[in-house]
Amino acid sequence: MDTNRTPSERADALEERQMQMLGDRIVTRSLLYYLADGERSLGTGFAVGSGKRLLMGEDPRLPAMPEKPTLLDFFALRFAPGPQQHLLQSANLAQKNGLPEKMVLACLLHDIAVCGFIRSDHGYWGAQLVEPYVDEEVSWAIRMHQCLRFFPDESVGYGYPDNYVRMFGPDYKPEPYIVAEYERARKHRWYMSARMICVNDLYSFDPDTVVKMEQFADIIGRHFRQPKEGLGNDNTPTSHMWRTLRRPCNAL
Ligand SMILES: [Fe+2]
Ligand SMILES: [Fe+2]
Q1: Same structural domain for residues 151 and 207?
Q2: Would you tell me which of 48, 63, 95, 115 could form a disulfide with 77, CB atoms 3.0–4.6 Å apart?
Q3: 17 pLDDT exceeds 70?
Q4: How far is the CA of 2 from the centre of ligand 1 (A)?
Q5: Rounded to the nearest whole angstrom, what is the distance from the C-alpha of residue 56 to the centroid of ligand 1?
Q6: Does the residue 252 lie in any domain?
Q7: Residue 95 structural domain
């Protein structure tokens, strides 16, 4: 462990190693990656004057994807493997609780943004990502679980999650936009669908239960409209999000 080096020296060394892997192509990163480290920067930017080319196209550091990737390909080749167990266990619980198939799918995808895209406002990003491919009720429920998680509903035995007290502190209060969204969701005809995501959201993982994706292959087949061109190659309002996941370091 190179503890004597500063974080930016370590980042430079990493950049150097990656350039070698990439045949001297420079990997550019989006602002979001830098902001996440508390920096307002674009790093190497456009590498003007370096004489080097920027990485465009497939990224040799990541697993190669098939030409026409499916949802399951993204799970297998892009999304973080660990957090997927949370989705699988939640969908498993929803199935045991007898929820309709499309709601099992909603539980399976509810945190797709956390394990596959962007954590902040994850319900919104996740809903947007899958919206063109699922029933409107499914994406609505995924979007609204963002706010409903913070509010109990004793009628279905849902209390404020204990682990939110641990993770966010006992004084944490949801922001006003979350409160306003909750109030709107409460009056919506699909309120209970979004609430069912919370009810089946397994906050405590069971390390002894391993649920496999194959268990849901048929449900995905019936309720996720996989485009024949492959996710990202199709022409929907969110195709660019899938392409960005596939090639996250395209320079532009
Ligand atoms: Fe969530
Ligand atoms: Fe969750």
Answers
A1: yes
A2: 63
A3: no
A4: 36
A5: 32
A6: no
A7: 71-240
Smallest CA-to-CA distance from 174 within 141, 194, 151 is with 151
Ligand 1 centre to CA of 159 (Å) is 15
Tell me, yes or no, whether 48 and 94 share the same domain: no
pLDDT tens-digit readout, 33-88: 999 999 999 988 888 888 888 999 999 899 999 999 999 999 999 999 989 999 99
Q: Domain for residue 171, yes or no?
A: yes
**Ligand 1 centre distance from Cα of residue 197 (Å):** 9
152 is a domain residue? yes
Q: How far is the CA of 88 from the centre of ligand 1 (A)?
A: 13
C-alpha 6 to ligand 1 mean position (Å) = 34
The reported pTM is 0.91
- Please tell me the distance between residue 119's alpha carbon and the centre of ligand 1 in angstroms: 9
In a domain, 63, yes or no: no
* Shared-domain flag, residues 3 and 89: no
pLDDT band at 15 (very low <50, low <70, confident <90, very high): low
Same structural domain, 84 and 199: yes
Residues with CB under 5 A from ligand 1 (ion): 111
Q: How far apart are CA 54 and CA 38, in angstroms?
A: 24
User: What was the pLDDT predicted at 21?
Assistant: 65
pLDDT one-digit tens code per residue, 161-181: 999 999 999 999 999 999 999
* Distance from C-alpha of 240 to C-alpha of 231, rounded to nearest angstrom: 9
CA of 123 to the centre of ligand 1 (A): 6
